[in-house]
């Protein structure tokens, strides 16, 4: 098919690209429209006049500074910890021999079979009743919110990823054992082998995992809503936008919500642009078979 009709592949890619980018552009341009244009029955992608009032109102109504701070702290914290734990686990599961290695890896794979929402209530209970934190005593009692009063509540439950460990293990496996053994023979410690050898060779995989983790955590809503019920000061961007959309008439806040979402997308786009080279390289390496 590809040889007989080379144009067909390009056509599919173009149609797929248009179908994905048009809704995004519609959201961005909607944030610049006034109420008259939004209520018009005639659809127009581009606004007649660009209005920036919705962006100013979004910052004022949502307290975007605090929401951005909470989201950035939580997302960066989760991303860094996931990269650290996944790379360490991937290295240990491939290049360090110990009893029960395969059993442990199978257990990690098994955790990926369960939907994430199954762990919401247990994690929330553990967070609220975490001992010696947030006014709790040694037995987790006290009724002051426990760990849910700290930004750590948005970070620690997501600090380990089964998918991340699986992904990094597969990439670490591509590193020849002879290279690792040569470093050990030269007197390098396990930490030095990991830091100076494994990390540089797995940067494409780490960039790929960083993008997936950052996007997933940046858009996390359900857990943010649970923590919001304990401490309103820990609201993240998705929670703030959801509160705005629920509190006001959707027909009157369409442009305002679109402006808030457009602002929230900017950090994700910046991260992707920065890591794009490593991400593409990681995708190419993932399809190479030794």
Automatic annotation (TrEMBL):
SUPFAM superfamilies: MetI-like. One of its GO terms (cellular component) is plasma membrane. The keyword S-adenosyl-L-methionine does not apply. InterPro entries: MetI-like, MetI-like_sf. One of its GO terms (biological process) is transmembrane transport. Belongs to the binding-protein-dependent transport system permease family. This is ABC transporter permease.
């Amino acid at each position: 098919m590809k040889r007989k009709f080379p144009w067909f592949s390009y056509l599919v890619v173009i149609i797929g690209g248009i179908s994905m980018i048009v809704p995004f552009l519609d959201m961005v341009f909607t944030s610049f429209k006034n109420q008259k244009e939004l209520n018009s029955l005639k659809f127009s992608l581009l606004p007649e006049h660009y209005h920036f009032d919705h962006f100013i109102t979004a910052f004022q109504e949502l307290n975007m500074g605090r929401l951005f701070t909470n989201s950035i702290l939580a997302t960066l914290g989760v991303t860094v910890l996931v990269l650290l734990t996944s790379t360490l686990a991937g290295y240990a599961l491939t290049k360090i021999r110990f009893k029960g290695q395969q059993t442990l890896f199978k257990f990690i794979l098994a955790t990926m079979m369960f939907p994430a929402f199954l762990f919401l209530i247990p994690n929330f209970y553990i967070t609220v009743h975490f001992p010696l934190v947030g006014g709790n005593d040694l037995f987790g009692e006290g009724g002051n919110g426990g760990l849910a009063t700290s930004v750590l509540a948005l970070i620690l439950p997501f600090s380990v990823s089964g998918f991340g460990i699986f992904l990094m293990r597969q990439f670490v496996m591509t590193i020849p054992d002879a290279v690792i053994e040569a470093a050990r023979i030269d007197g390098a410690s396990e930490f030095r082998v990991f830091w100076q050898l494994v990390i540089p060779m797995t940067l494409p995989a780490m960039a790929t995992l960083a993008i997936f983790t950052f996007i997933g955590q940046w858009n996390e809503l359900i857990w943010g809503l649970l923590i919001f019920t304990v401490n309103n000061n820990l609201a993240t961007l998705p929670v703030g936008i959801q509160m705005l959309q629920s509190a006001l008439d959707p027909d009157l806040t369409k442009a305002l919500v679109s402006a808030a979402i457009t602002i929230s997308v900017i950090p994700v786009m910046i991260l992707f642009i920065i890591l794009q080279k490593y991400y593409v390289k990681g995708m190419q390496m993932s399809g190479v078979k030794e």
